[in-house]
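Lab notebook page, bench 4
Experiment: in silico fold of construct C2
Operator: M.H.
Input chain length: 252 residues
Purpose: comparison with the prior construct
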Amino acid sequence: SSDNSSLSDISFIAKCLPFLVIASPSSSRNSDEKKACTWLLSNIDEIETKLQMQDSQVDFDDNKESNDLFVTIAILLESLSAICFDSVTNRHEEKGPSSKKFLKKAKVHAEALLFARPNSLWTMKGVASCVKALRAAMLHLTDDFDKVFDAIIPNLRRPSHFIRLHTLTIFESFPIKPFVVDHSELDLTDDLDEEYSTKMANDDNGVAKDGSVNGSCHLMKNLLTLESIPVAFQNQRQFVSELNRVEVLART
């Protein structure tokens, strides 16, 4: 259909845009980035409007048209994030505010996409790309981390390596929590986001030399590292070591 052709064209252009913008001459890069990000956001807005106009009784899981629209949003979001990430990390400092403005708009769409399609590989890939750019710009995906956590935690049981990988990338961007070593002494009025000082010499993962845990919990970082290790014989020792580390943390 013409709509499917249009979505295919939009997706193709979106995939090419980051390469074209990043390779553009420095004299026009600022203008090119703004035009590209504006175009990407406008298409996301238009597609979301189409989704809102559809009958609320439609079963989205069985509706190919809706699925295509969600996939296109994810592709647009990924491309926008790639452009902004390059701008924040590799370009002039004056480009930061412009990229942050686009990212603040993009994260609203990313969060909406995540809740609409939490088990989609396209969603996880697009949102993970957005999270990477947001972290570079010192921004967060959401203010309600618990809601996001509950929505996508089932993905860690999925057989797809890439769904787990992108899900852990999102989790790893969340504020680091401290270990609760004595529940009887836990002050529920205190700020659990605060990194507690440790009395023992811990490694980077909060595991002390005597095997106990204290300080900040980096379990998601460890899980992401474990998921990122290529499955190969030469990586067996690293894989087992990281797996044992996760086992220790998971028992707490």
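Observations: Residues 191-203 have pLDDT under 50 and may be disordered. The first helix runs from residue 2 to 22.
Next step: discuss at group meeting.
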